[in-house]
Write a structure and sequence with these properties.
The protein is an alpha/beta fold. It has three domains: about 55 residues, Nucleic acid-binding proteins (OB fold (Dihydrolipoamide Acetyltransferase, E2P), Beta Barrel), CATH 2.40.50.140; about 190 residues, 3-Layer(aba) Sandwich (Rossmann fold); about 90 residues, Beta Barrel (OB fold (Dihydrolipoamide Acetyltransferase, E2P)). Helices cover about 25% and strands about 30% of the residues. The strands form five sheets. It has an eight-stranded mixed β-sheet, sandwiched between helices. Strands 1-5-6-4-3-2 form a six-stranded mixed β-sheet. It has a five-stranded antiparallel β-sheet with strand order 10-9-8-13-14, covered by helices on one side. Strand 3 and strand 4 form a beta hairpin. It is globular, with a radius of gyration of 22 Å. The model has no long low-confidence stretch (mean pLDDT about 95). Bound molecules: S-adenosyl-L-homocysteine.
């Protein structure tokens, strides 16, 4: 019942970063708590099978807690796990990924989960941000579960806060530009600094491992370059063991294909965003066919080419239905699935398993420390 007050221990962290507790067999979600905290909480919303609650007191503090370095934590919608020591964040995310594969994917066992992260990259990792502006033009991020913009500029004492997860170049920009005329996307990594809306400055090159990749702030690009390098290395490991031809679907600016062209002559790519695809044509010198269409439209096309190696990196919704069906029908010997959403990865994996694939390898990459976002790599043979 709403307003019920109860005391319980936080059991785990849910995929949205909230703590999970049980109250008379019902699951209750509470923001801002750590596993093993014992809390007194008040129910704020009842749903059919679950409820949400707010913390009234923390009766026993978990050893997994720590002080947050960002003064906007809890208000800003960006981070949800900063109050956990880094190892506890990794542990929570690994559990969320596995739980999705067991529960939604129907797996009874999983290959050993390999976890890639970089402790030195726990803060200052975020290379791409979109700054919003409030009615006064002050720059900020959106508040938790709201459209309100929380400005970095604080009047008392007058000071521009920085965003501890963002790259130093982004924070230097923020210090100089606490207000802007409009929403603006920036990209900053080492010598590369790109900004939306300034002529000639939205597009440039970034060094990823041994090559320069052309990107534009107006199209998708991975926002943690250090982890991207780790991900690319792992993808290339599997490419080294495989035969072509190669197909890169949801290719963006062709980052993966730019490396995969060393292993397979002329990779083909599918990417519905024409601007991203134009950049991919620059990035992949030895490009095969490029399809500026959706994965579903590609799946409905007549095609007789038999791919040996298919890499997919869909948005949060996961693979589109026709495309997933076509993959199972064509049955390439290797499917590499880069996922930013464990639930849709699990849903799609279940269908691959039904089609006779085996989950041969599973890795998690911590692209987004301090948040509950999970990036993973699943390899199907
Ligand atoms: N692999 C790339 C991009 C991944 S992001 C990289 O690492 O940079 C996902 C990409 O899929 C985006 O570029 C988006 O434009 C594209 N996309 C989203 N839905 C799509 C669809 N249904 N069909 C084809 N491309 C799609």
């Amino acid at each position: 019942m709403i307003d019920d007050v109860f005391t319980a221990e936080v059991e785990s962290i849910a995929s949205n970063g909230a703590g999970v507790l049980s109250k008379s067999g019902q699951k209750v979600f509470v923001d801002g708590v750590a596993p093993s905290d014992v809390i007194r909480a008040r129910i704020t919303k009842e749903h059919k099978n679950w409820a949400t609650a707010e913390v009234l007191d923390i009766v026993e503090l978990s050893p997994k807690r720590r002080a947050c370095i960002c003064p906007l934590f809890g208000i800003c919608g960006g981070c949800s796990l900063q109050h956990l020591v880094y190892d506890a964040q990794i542990e929570a995310k690994a559990a969320i990924l596995k739980d999705a594969l067991f529960r939604i994917g129907g797996f009874s066992e999983l290959p050993e989960l390999k976890i890639k992260y970089n402790r030195e990259n726990e803060f200052g990792y975020r290379n791409k941000v979109r700054f919003h502006v409030d009615r006064l033009g002050q720059v900020g991020f959106k508040a938790k579960k709201s459209e309100e913009v929380i400005p970095f500029y604080q009047t008392n004492p007058p000071e521009v806060k920085i965003c501890p997860v963002s790259d130093t170049g982004i924070n230097a920009f923020l210090k100089k530009n606490p207000s802007l005329k409009r929403e603006t996307t920036l990209y900053s990594f080492k010598d590369t600094f790109l900004i939306e809306g300034e002529k000639g400055k939205s597009r440039g090159k970034v060094r990823i491992l041994d090559r320069d990749i052309v990107l534009d702030v107006n199209v998708f690009f991975q926002s943690n370059a250090v982890m991207l390098e780790e991900l690319v290395k792992d993808i290339l490991f599997f490419a080294g063991e495989a035969k072509g031809p190669c197909l890169d679907v949801y290719s963006g600016v062709g980052t993966f294909a730019a490396f995969l062209q060393d292993f397979f002559p002329a990779p083909d790519i599918v990417e519905e965003n024409k601007d991203a695809l134009a950049l991919a044509r620059e990035n992949v010198g030895n490009l095969g066919e490029s399809f500026a269409i959706s994965s579903d439209r590609w799946a409905k096309m007549q095609g007789t080419k038999k791919y040996g190696f298919v890499i997919v990196d869909p948005p949060r919704q996961g693979l589109s239905p026709f495309f997933r069906y076509r993959l199972c029908e064509d049955h390439p010997p290797v499917i590499i699935y880069v996922s930013c959403n464990p639930s849709t990865l699990a849903r799609d994996s279940k269908i691959f398993i039904q089609a006779g694939y085996r989950l041969a390898s599973l890795s998690m990459f911590d692209f987004y420390p301090q948040t509950a976002h999970i990036e993973s790599l699943a390899v199907f043979f």
